[in-house]
Amino acid sequence: MHSCLWRCIIVAVSLVILRFYFQENKEHVDYGTKLKEKKEILQQTVREQINSEVSNHLEVFRELQKNSPLLQHANYELLAGALPKEKKLLTVGISSVQRPQGSYLLDTLQSLFQASSEAELETMVVLVHLSDPDPEWLGQAVANISDLFEPHIEARELLVIHGLLDGSPLRNVNQSSPCEELDFRQKVDYALLMNFASNLSDYFLLMDDNVQCTLYFVSSIYWALSAWKEYPWVIVEFSNLRFSGKVFHSGDLSRLASFFLLFHEHTSAHLLLSRFHLLLAQNSPIHLSPSMFYHMGNYSELEATCFPVEKDKVFGEPDNPTAIVLTDMVSMLNIIPLYAYVLNEESYTTLDPIEGNHLTVILDRPQKILRIVVLTGTEENGMYHLQKGRVLLGYDIMEQPKHCVRYSLLGPLVGGNLDQRVFYDEDSMEKLSCIRLEVSASQEHWLVIRQIKVWTDPEDEES
Predict the structure, then answer these.
(1) How confident is the model at residue 267 (pLDDT cuts 50, 70, 90)?
(2) Is 115 exposed, middle or buried (0-12, 13-18, 19+ CB in 10 A)?
(3) Is residue 152 within 8 Å of residue 89, measured between CB atoms?
(4) Which residue pairs, CB below 8 angstroms and at least 24 apart, start in 107-114?
(5) Cβ atoms of 385 and 418 closer than 8 Å
(6) What is the 3-state secondary structure (H, E, C) of 194-262?
(7) Other C-beta atoms within 10 Å of 373: how many?
(8) Worst-scoring range by mean pLDDT, 16-25, 148-157, 288-297, 355-364?
(9) What separation, in Å, do the N-terminal and C-terminal C-alpha atoms of the chain show?
(10) What is the dihedral of CA 105, 107, 112, 115, to 10 degrees?
(11) What is the pLDDT of residues 94-151, one digit of tens each?
């Protein structure tokens, strides 16, 4: 089903891009070209896109870097605050609408500012998009925000806007159900928010208006993105919530806004967002733990019906499956590599690891792994941690000598540690055979690999 939707999206994107191309370049078209020839060119191009959808989808979607023509109808009103004088590191984007059960926007903003230090506030701007057109609600919401957060508004740390797609054909789109209407409004609201935010900062954090933040979340995001800087990524997720906690490159926001508006009917915002990273060649979700954002308050009855709340995955204790552990690092005294994998107080210690060194867990049989945690450095103060390293997932086991034939990146270590979910294609039967911790840069001091923890899928039983 999802692969079919993926093909439909590729085809639709291709058709829309080509239609825009012909429209924008009609002055340069040879008017002697017959309509039949144009159709043949169009059909051939679409066929080529379908045949090479895996390798070519990045090039296709780069054409959406320019704003969708629909966003040319966007009009914004600045309700409070002023644009930052310089480009920031992070924009925290919040879209808020009037809710029958009351608003948690003020609580969300309070949590956000209280969780951030003064140094962190200097690196970010909070952008609030009040999307409800009711003038009375807008006036009251702006008054409440201005009253409670005046210092942040004056410091250009908080910006409040109201956006509309005036004159857009989307205004006349009729939805067949309340859920479709709610989802349509959500996609338009997110598109307007992201379109406005595209040049404010290097990165963009999406948040709903009913979220509680953990302390110093900005610094945590900064260090995580610094570790990922050398690797391609599109979306990094910092929570289990449907939308909140997702971080993007601001340069991708216009594409994502266009994506929402291109598929404004019959496709949920959540599904589009969950597939967006594939269009820009990020094959699997990147979900970092622990979560930094949590839902607060209650959903409306309509929201609860249309968007069932996704419960946090409860993992319990790790259950490291039977494995052997190999390394090309120099072991100290009688310390063996297995100490890093056995679930006890033992750890593996080595001296002066060099770039390319590895410690590899080879499972006795292929397993469906759901989560992997790697801890380096001493537990008391984190000394002797791996300064620069990454974790790879291995497949296709070979027996002589025992090793995995191919590897894919799970993620780099952040501050010497890694805690990530492992995702699989829905129809994939492939399982993991190896987990490799690899040294990415040499370091001249001790390295302590304290613990590798693994959680397996309880439904994955040996046939």
Answers:
(1) confident
(2) middle
(3) no
(4) 107/210, 107/212, 107/296, 107/297, 108/207, 108/208, 108/209, 108/210, 108/211, 108/212, 108/296, 109/145, 109/148, 109/149, 109/158, 110/148, 111/211, 111/212, 111/213, 111/296, 112/207, 112/213, 113/149, 113/152
(5) no
(6) HHHHCCCEEEEEEECCCEEECCCHHHHHHHHHHHCCCCCCCEEECCCCCCCCEEEEHHHHHHHHHHHHH
(7) 17
(8) 16-25
(9) 27
(10) -170
(11) 999 888 777 899 999 999 999 999 999 999 999 999 998 889 999 999 999 999 999 9
Could you give the CA distance from residue 311 to residue 315 in angstroms, rounded to a whole number?
12
pTM above 0.70, yes or no: yes
Total number of residues shown for the chain: 463
The token pair at 91 is 């924009």
Q: What distance in Å separates the CA atoms of residue 353 and residue 333, rounded to the nearest whole number? A: 16
The pLDDT score that the predictor gives to residue 14 is: 43
Give the pLDDT of residue 158: 98
- Model confidence pLDDT, tens digit, residues 371-386: 999 999 998 888 999 9
Distance CA 18, CA 70 (A): 16
What are the tokens at 229? 């800087």
Beta-sheet pairing, 417-421 with 369-376: antiparallel
Task: Give the integer Cα–Cα distance in Å for 100 and 97.
Answer: 10
